[in-house]
């Protein structure tokens, strides 16, 4: 009996090239401000930067059509979002950073409503809402030490003051497949669903071969 095939999926807002260029400038400023302390951080590939709304994990291929329909329906019920990248921070704290991120402002209430609607659409398919509350952020680096990178609080504060706000109009949801490879994760878009576009069927799922 053949093994069931699956894909590792997540749903995200995918920045355009202009936003990626702004993120690259912000990352360069973070590296400059960090100096030697930046060696404790592993900065991600800018081509893969995205705002994750929901991680689904391994999903059997026979469930893909249902997931795609849920993503399109959630997107259709949300207006495009006027967001803004501003400042930087870290989880769990700037004093012992494990994840370094760029903060978001703007249409955060509609963004949270979109995540709630996405959860509502996905729950009947076997994807219960995540236990942790949604905290919008754009991850740009992770700590190399297992316990987190120390001494970045002042760096993040200085970088936040120096970073110019970056306007981001998010107009679609993207369903991604994530491939974990030795050189890092590779993300393949499977579906693009326009926000506030009930008349559009979205981009068809990519090849499943």
Secondary-structure map with pairings?
Layout: E1 6-13, H1 17-34, E2 41-43, E3 51-60, H2 64-76, E4 81-91, E5 96-97, E6 99-106, H3 108-122, E7 137-143, E8 149-150, H4 153-162, E9 166-170, E10 172-181, E11 184-194
Antiparallel strand pairs: 1-3, 1-10, 2-7, 4-6, 4-9, 5-8, 6-7, 10-11
Helix pairs in contact: 1-4, 2-3
Explain this structure:
By secondary structure, this protein is α+β, with helices and mostly antiparallel strands. It has one domain (6-194): Cyclic Phosphodiesterase, Chain: A, CATH 3.90.1140.10. Helices cover 27% and strands 37% of the residues. The chain has a 5-stranded antiparallel sheet, with helices on both faces. Strands 3-1-10-11 form a 4-stranded antiparallel sheet. Strands 5-8 form a two-stranded antiparallel sheet. Strand 10 (172-181) and strand 11 (184-194) form a beta hairpin. The relative contact order is 0.25.
Please give a handful of descriptors for the protein shown:
single chain; about 210 residues; alpha+beta; Cyclic Phosphodiesterase, Chain: A; 5-stranded antiparallel beta sheet; 4-stranded antiparallel beta sheet; 4 helices; 11 strands
